[in-house]
Amino acid sequence: MGKPSAPATPDPVATANAQTASNKETAIAQTGLNAINQYGPQGKVEYSQNGAWSDGTPKFTQTTTLSPQQQAIYDAMQGTQGQLANTAKTQAGRLDSLLSQPFSLSNEATEARLMELGRSRLDPALDRRREQEIARLSNMGIKGGTAYDRAMEQLNQGENDAYNQLLLSGRGQAVQEALTERNQPLNEIIGLASGTQVQMPSYGGTPQTGMAGTDVAGITQGAHNANMAAYGQQMGQWNNTMGGLFGLGANALMAFSDERLKKNARSTGLKVGGVPVKTFEWKGGGGRDIGVMAQDVERKHPEMVDKSHPSGYRRVNYGGLMRLGMGRAA
């Protein structure tokens, strides 16, 4: 009887680990291909390996260096921004006093502001108009009396109308000018502060070179699918062999299986009734065979071993042992 052997099943954990290792190596190679140094009139960008992570994956550093001319410009810009920042900080001290002053856009406050602005231009014009009217009346010989009083009343009424028109038409302008005066210091400080933002030089993106990972899992799965038919045939042959062996044993009830009659025994990885199944050679010849050792059975199931044969060699009850069940070795 030739030596049968149970085929090994594919190991999904080993396949997953192999795929992970392949992906990691691909990523490392990808990074190396993409770490391309760049040189131009404004400066350079260089890459260098900087040690490794705890799992051995290399670390990389990107270093940007400006040309001497660009570095001088950058330093000057930084100095200017620093001065603007200091000025903004100094001017910001004015905010406390500015914001602590009451500010109102009520009618009373607006009209007061409007009269302040409007009368600076309107009053001189009205004064000239009054002088001209008095001179006109004087030339006409009117220096008092009813006609003079009526003319002055009309003049006063016209001045009141001018002031009313100033209030009605100038409110929007007065509000805008009041807000401008109030907000101008704030806008100056905000402008100084916004001019101090740090501007970093920019370079073109590093070229990206694609590298596909090895599909270890797919290759393994393909090989697995291709071998499953052979695997099933091997298992079927193995089961038939074992079933035939122990079927014969069951028919014969007792069969010689003393280890003193065998040599070159090797474990198959299977057990029957908890007893290891081994391949071996008969000392009397006949090639390799498969079965159990009577001494192994005696230690586990002494009732399955017969020691009464006159030859002194032990026999095993294969039928009874088979009924205890087969399984993989622990």
Task: Please outline the helices and strands.
Elements lengths: L11 H23 L3 E3 L2 E10 L5 E9 L1 H25 L1 H7 L6 H33 L5 H50 L21 H37 L1 E3 L5 E11 L2 E8 L5 E4 L2 H7 L4 E2 L8 E3 H6 L2 E3 L2
Antiparallel strand pairs: 1-2, 2-3, 4-9, 5-6, 5-10, 6-7, 8-9
Helix pairs in contact: 2-5, 4-5
Task: Tell me what the structure shows.
It is a single chain. This protein is of the alpha+beta class and 330 residues long. The protein is 57% helix and 17% strand. It contains eight helices and ten strands. The strands form three sheets. Strands 7-6-5-10 form a four-stranded antiparallel sheet. A hairpin with a 2-residue loop joins β5 and β6. α2 crosses α5 and α4 runs antiparallel to α5. The longest helix has 50 residues, at 145-194. Mean pLDDT is 78; it is low at 1-6.
Q: Enumerate the strands of the largest sheet in spatial order, edge to edge or round the barrel.
A: 7-6-5-10
Helix content: 55-70%
Number of helices: 8
**What is the N-to-C order of secondary-structure elements (H for helix, E for strand)?**
HEEEHHHHHEEEEHEEHE
Quaternary state reads: single chain
